[in-house]
Amino acid sequence: MSTINYDLNQIKALAFDVDGVLSSDVLSLHPTGEPMRTVNVKDGYALQLAVKLGFHVAIITGGRTEAVRKRFAGLGIENIYMGSCVKIHDYRDFRDKHGLKDEQILYMGDDVPDIEVMRECGLPCCPRDAAAEVKQVALYISHQDGGYGCGRDVIEQILKSQGKWMNGDAFGW
């Protein structure tokens, strides 16, 4: 298991794609045509803890389903960009709204639409099963596949590096 080679103490914000990162890259289709996703409980725990600890967290997804919004809003995430056709615009809105610098932001994506953001943020990351083009841009490739704990992997490393893992805030939802 590798560790992130970056000064994690400067990370103040986390942004994630959904499909292929916080859910697997395989979608079931409901009879109505709506895509059905699975999400990882350990990713969810880490996301809500990061929010609770004061990190700015964003979801930037091309998806448009209300279930995605409800899931991540339920974890306390306020910056949810749905139907993001050109993700760099939403990334910049998130960065500028919170007065952040690129080097303070981790972004995790898995496919070609994520590459522009990954080239601009300070810490570009991807799941183990990301597209080859994305892996070339990533500074860190998780040992976990998308939807199977890659979000937890990067969040846990940041919180441990900043001395915020397993403290008093860690033991509740």
TrEMBL record:
Q: How is this protein named in the record?
A: 3-deoxy-D-manno-octulosonate 8-phosphate phosphatase
Query: Where on this chain does Mg(2+) bind?
Result: 17, 110
Swiss-Prot/TrEMBL keywords:
Hydrolase, Magnesium, Metal-binding
Q: Name the NCBIfam families for this protein.
A: KdsC-phosphatas
One GO term in the molecular function aspect is: metal ion binding
How the protein assembles, per its UniProt entry? Answer: Homotetramer.
Q: Does the keyword Hydrolase apply?
A: yes
Among its keywords, does the record have Transferase? Answer: no
Family assignment from sequence similarity: Belongs to the KdsC family.
Could you say which cofactors this protein requires? Answer: Mg(2+)
Recorded hits in InterPro entries, A to Z, give: CMP-NeuNAc_synthase (IPR050793), HAD-like_sf (IPR036412), HAD_sf (IPR023214), KdsC_fam (IPR010023)
